[in-house]
Amino acid sequence: EVCPGDNQTMDSRALADAPRNQFEQKLAPPPQERTVHSLRPGSVLYLPPGHWHAVAATKGSSVSVDLRVANIIHARWVCEALFADLTTKLREGTFPGNPGGSAQGTKRGPVCVGQTDFSNAGLSREAGLYAAEVARFSPHVLARTRMPKALPFEDVHSDGMERGATLAYLITSGCCPSSFPETASMRISVNPLVAISIAWRDAGALVVRLLSVSALTGSEYMRFSLLCSATLQPALTLLRDRGSATMGELRASVGQKLPASQKSTCGGKSAHASGKSAAKSTPVNFSESSGAGQ
Asked: 43 or 213: which carries more pLDDT confidence?
């Protein structure tokens, strides 16, 4: 059963599903005639983006595998960046007003929704602090927390679930620069939406896995494997553990000046200049998106 919809998909609700929130309740299928298709073994039915559809077995047992790839609307991007910023400040103890603790205290207390938040007496102190911090949310935070984007991949380093490529291939493809300015103070920062894991492939090579799964919805934005020289292991470990480092620190960690062909090993990271001009610099993001269900 197929019903045309909007190709600017914002939701993953199925045609036969009951609304799960008010947004979905207002996003009802258009009131028009639906088309029914009967498929035989081996048949393929192409559904354009945004088309409502429902599948039902006519007889016997049936197995259906559904992989949903949808658009990422700007509202979701802003929410992801805001959540990453707020939770980072909580973890680092830099959240203004110390939510969960006393107004003058330094120890952070519980940060979860409590009984006070269900009353009609107004916002709790913690909720008020969050609201004030949201009001201070700046475009700079959004710029350094960009949604992961697609990277070119090599078939030999990819399979059906995870794509990958060598660093040299990404540089040759032009998706990341072959070098950065010779500035020791330049800071390389890990995208707050991306997790990095490092594994040895052999004595001379590393597999750097980049994964991004929404902490809000569980949608997967990125799954990519980057193959690079093992000489970069100290620098990559520094970035993984600290979240950011200057070019000077990265060079010192590997004990030598990074070759031009290996300077941009920051898959899933954004590179931007540090210092007073940092907020005006343009981040360079290297990441891969496998699609996000919305």
From this structure: 213
The Cβ of residue 67 has, within 10 Å, a number of other Cβ atoms equal to 7
Exposed / middle / buried, residue 231 (Cβ in 10 Å: 0-12, 13-18, 19+): middle
Closest-CA residue to 262 (of 164, 167, 153): 167
Q: How confident is the model at residue 110 (pLDDT cuts 50, 70, 90)?
A: low
Residue 266 CA neighbour count, 13 Å, CB half: 29
What is 136-158 written as a DSSP string? T--HHHHHHSPPP------GGG-
Phi-psi region of 36 (alpha: psi -120 to 50; beta: other; left: phi over 0): beta
| List of residues 6+ apart from 206 with CB closer than 8 A | 198, 199, 200, 227, 228, 229, 230, 232, 233, 236
Report helix, strand or coil for 208. strand
Residue pointed to by tokens 């093992």: 230
H or E segment to which residue 133 belongs? helix 125-135
Q: What pLDDT is stored for residue 259 in this prediction? A: 47
Measure the CA–CA gap between 210 and 270, rounded to whole angstroms.
13
d(C-alpha 262, C-alpha 170), whole Å: 11
3-class SS at 65?
coil
* Structure-token pair, residue 211: 């994964």
CA distance 167 to 258: 14
